[in-house]
Amino acid sequence: MPRNGAMVMSAQIATANRLLDGAVVFLGYDGQWTRAIDEARVAERDDDIAELQAEATASEECVGTYLIDVDVRSAEVSGRFIRPTKYRERIRAFGPTTHPSFATKLVPEHFEMRADVSTAFAAGI
Amino acid sequence: MPLLKNNGIVEDSWTVVGDDDAMPADGGAIVSLERWQRDRERLLGRNAPLGLTLKSSQSPEDVEGLSAFALIRLEFPAFTDGRAYSYARLLRDRQGYTGEIRAAGNVLRDQYAHMLRCGFDTFEVEEGADPAEWAKSRDVVCLAYQNATDGVRAIWAKRHGRAA
Amino acid sequence: MYKYDEFDHAFVQSRVSEFRDQVARRLSGELSEEEFRPLRLMNGLYLQLHAYMLRVAIPYGMLSSTQLRKMADIGRMYDRGYGHFTTRQNIQFNWPRLEDTPDILEELASVEMHAIQTSGNCIRNVTADQYAGVDPGEVDDSRVWSELIRQWSSLHPEFSFLPRKFKIAVTGSAEDRTAVKFHDIGLILHRNDAGDVGFEVLVGGGLGRTPMIGRTVREFLPAKYVLSYIEAILRVYNMLGRRDNKYKSRIKILVHETGIDELRGMIEDEWAAMAKDEIDLPQAEIDRVRSFFVDPDYQDLPEHDGGYEAKRFEDRRFAQWVRANVAPHKVKGYVIANISLKPIGGAPGDATSAQMKAIADLADRYSFGEIRVTHEQNLVLAHVRKADAYALWTELDELQLGSANVGLISDIIACPGLDYCSLANARSIPVAQRIQRRFADIARQVDIGELKLNISGCINACGHHHAGHIGILGVDRRGEEYYQITLGGSANEHAAIGKIVGPAFSSADIVDAVEKVVDAYIVVRKDSERFLDTYNRLGDALFKEALYAETKNAAA
């Protein structure tokens, strides 16, 4: 049911770590792995999910592949916003909550400590 | 299965015989511990080389009559199961076993150096294993901090001129 | 400190070449991830939540200033400008690229360092007393024996595929700062009546899912037999340790299931049958290694330093720092200075590259170029003249390294937790920060006194929460972070495992809960009892009451 012009769906995306540098990546629509979670290919139906799993695991440029549950919000203006349902996966997708400077995606409510990060970093030491 | 021996691939002259199979008339035959315990007299009567294969849960210390075997085959069900490294060393250093000690199962090139140091002579390897590549893995770490079974002197022995 | 000879250099270099080759074979696809994983683990390279993580070995916690500078450089060039000091005296980098790791290992080798065996089912970093060589009451220098064991354990061909990881600690003082009784093998240095040095040997200590305190297998082992005896223990463990269940594979389970007396019998039988001359070192080698751990060039100073005393009187913050962070030294006119890596609101145990470089420079000026890492994730400058202490502290203070909280409640020991670790159930660093902020007032911290607070993000207990006076364990309850409190643990010579006090607390409530525990102690403590003393005297009833009585009354 649309609310404020946003649609919310439950679905799965594929994630892994890039072999070369360990970066957290998501399988996109073009078969490429992307660091941007909002560009991930979303699968809702069983056959789509199975296909997504198969394609992700077959990839040799990534390791530790698995599927995660996500909520997808689409809005006319802001585009698509994908949010993993488990907090562990949110930390993995958005970055350590203690170091917003390492965020892969700046999601304000994810970084509750943003004013209180490692004091040395804050002090520029 | 190719056999790696003295840094080359050789013909395997041994056969692993199932517990209920007939023994081959001649040639080296490898039996399990269970078969050895069950058919010992008959096996000894056979006029051909006898070998023993041990699972990783079976220590050679528990085997009677080791001297009957020209070959002891130690299994690695997974390369992470490191019990046979101790078994090989005990066979050589404690039980004085001078026959062939063979590594079988999940035997990989990156464990070759460790296995040689522990007293293994031969290795059942995957099809396509390249002895030259295996030799490279063995040679890359040429110094050892410990004495082991292979006679290579530990670094501390070299430091203080301790002969073998 | 120990210096590599040509053998040590060649060994580490060949290991770097080997790993470079293994990485190339992985990137080319010749090695699968399954085959590569144990190989990269043996060089300390994990795949973690966000990225790879490289754990660099700091043997028994000893670093030269050159080495610490290199850590700073690696942090800057290959990582994100910082490193994390661990509860096993190592350092971790959280963001290296796999393709860079051979170069990183090359850089480490250039300063006599490596990442060998900091992971995997093998013998890990041997830890020792951070006050070794300077503690007034020391029996013998634990670093000598740690170095000898380190070499013996390096790429041991027989013990590279153990049932599980294996951790050894050595302590040389009556006061134990190494948590020796929580190690797979704990070695406590003693002297017998004749004055000979030997070890009390303990096995089967550990934390994790099944915390256990080590059991004595040998009351007194003459020191020269330490390697052969350890080899006997390892051989028995390698052959008999469980391999069917990852959570039952440590030697502590073998001790528990076999019984200490029977296990001791097996170890002694194996040891008796060994050709010890092949393993135990000649006295010449022991002497050679010991020669690296002699006293530095101490000056002949009076015990009392007027300037030091004056500053303690004039500068309250310096006085606080001396009181918490400074320990007595065996040499007159010197002190041991602890550098806290637990500033209020920081990530416990983290140091930026700039801080590491600065500490290296301070070590050169004030402590003979030597730094030690403690298992409580702080650093030590072990040879500071009293006359230099104020200048040192002033500089530390400017670097956010002057927190006067060692041993106090804000000196929290914490694992990286779910912010970094793929094994974790809950975050630990934000909880540590919030607790620190609640107790930020230094006067209050001093009033509370010694209180070791440990936080683990999961049951693997890398934060050593079982051994905390107050321990906090992060758990996942119905998809949310919850925190379980244990009380009464202790990691020193009076080793104790903390007891769970009751149901876990939500993330929102955990800090209040800790404060209730502390306040309850303050109310009932006698004289100058520490929290742990009060707990040992009264048990956990009053703390349970403080934590849960309201909920019970509300429900009633």
Please, could you describe this protein's structure?
The complex is a heterotrimer of chains A (about 120), B (about 160) and C (about 550). By secondary structure, chain A is of the alpha+beta class. Chain A is built from 3 helices and 5 strands, in the order E-E-E-H-E-E-H-H. Helices cover about 20% and strands about 30% of the residues of chain A. Chain B is an alpha/beta fold and about 160 residues long. Chain B has 5 helices and 8 strands, in the order ββββαββαβαβαα. In chain B, helix 2 links the parallel strand 6 and strand 7. The longest helix of chain B is centred in the N-terminal third of the chain and has 13 residues. Chain B is globular. The mean pLDDT of chain B is about 95. Chain C is of the alpha+beta class and about 550 residues long. Chain C contains 18 helices and 20 strands. At the B-C interface, helix 2, helix 3, helix 4 and helix 5 of B face helix 1, helix 2, helix 5, helix 6 and helix 9 of C.
Give the topology.
The complex is a heterotrimer of chains A (125), B (164) and C (556).
Chain A: E1 6-18, E2 24-27, E3 33-34, H1 46-58, E4 62-75, E5 79-84, H2 87-94, H3 119-122
Antiparallel strand pairs in A: 1-2, 1-4, 2-3, 4-5
Chain B: E1 3-5, E2 8-10, E3 14-16, E4 28-32, H1 33-45, E5 50-54, E6 71-76, H2 83-94, E7 100-105, H3 112-118, E8 122-124, H4 131-140, H5 155-159
Parallel strand pairs in B: 3-4, 4-5, 5-6, 6-7, 7-8
Antiparallel strand pairs in B: 1-2, 1-8
Chain C: H1 6-27, H2 33-41, E1 45-47, E2 52-56, E3 62-64, H3 65-78, E4 82-85, E5 91-93, H4 101-110, H5 142-153, E6 168-171, E7 185-191, E8 197-203, E9 215-222, H6 226-240, H7 251-258, H8 260-273, H9 283-290, H10 306-314, H11 316-325, E10 326-328, E11 334-339, E12 350-352, H12 353-366, E13 370-373, E14 379-385, H13 386-398, E15 413-414, H14 429-438, H15 442-448, E16 453-456, E17 470-477, E18 480-487, E19 499-500, E20 505-506, H16 510-524, H17 531-538, H18 541-555
Parallel strand pairs in C: 6-7, 15-16, 16-17
Antiparallel strand pairs in C: 1-2, 2-5, 3-13, 4-5, 4-12, 7-8, 8-9, 10-11, 11-14, 13-14, 17-18, 18-19, 18-20
Helix pairs in contact in C: 1-2, 1-4, 3-12, 6-8, 7-8, 10-11, 10-13, 14-16, 16-18
